[in-house]
Write a structure and sequence with these properties.
- The protein is mainly α.
- Helix 2 packs parallel to helix 3 and helix 2 crosses helix 4.
Length: 161
């Protein structure tokens, strides 16, 4: 516990924490299925082979990428994510994620999932600085959330002062 309080433990959240309640499919699995359904009927697209657990989205995108415009595919995944994460956080956000967000001693949390569910939970109890990292996105196209831009300006000001 002292290592957590000292900031030496950084939780890294993956799709395993986004499991659905009451036998519902994990968010990643539901997210992967929508673009596949939307592109069903595309020549050569395999929609029958099961998607690997906790790697569903990656596999779905890998199947769609050779058959779809990349920007359209990004848009499809974004639209599916918006559709699936709309609604009441108390119902939508899995209990393990809500419990993790209640631990106040963590100074930094990292999520490897494309949703904002952890951030939603954290915003309920504290101010939040979000930093979005995308190694393949050119900096000219990079967009950070307003809080992240404010943090970046403060950081630059601190470094140059």
């Amino acid at each position: 516990m002292s290592q957590i309080r000292d900031g030496m433990v950084v939780p890294v959240v993956g799709p395993q924490l986004l499991v659905g309640a009451d036998g519902q499919l994990p968010l990643q699995a539901r997210l992967a299925r929508l673009p596949l359904e939307w592109h069903e009927g595309t020549e050569g697209l395999d929609t029958e082979t099961p998607l690997p657990p906790f790697g569903e989205l990656n596999e779905a995108v890998a199947r769609l990428k050779p058959r779809a415009n990349l920007q359209d595919l990004y848009g499809d995944v974004h639209a599916a994510l918006q559709e699936l994460t709309r609604g009441d956080d108390d119902v939508l956000v899995p209990l393990p994620l809500r419990q993790l967000a209640q631990i106040t001693d963590f100074k930094l949390l990292v999520t490897l999932t494309p949703d904002d569910l952890l951030a939603r939970c954290l915003r309920r109890r504290c101010a939040l600085n979000e930093i979005v990292h995308s190694p393949r996105l050119p900096t000219s196209e990079g967009r950070t959330r307003p809080a992240a831009r404010r943090w970046a300006r403060r950081t630059r000001a601190t470094r140059t002062a």
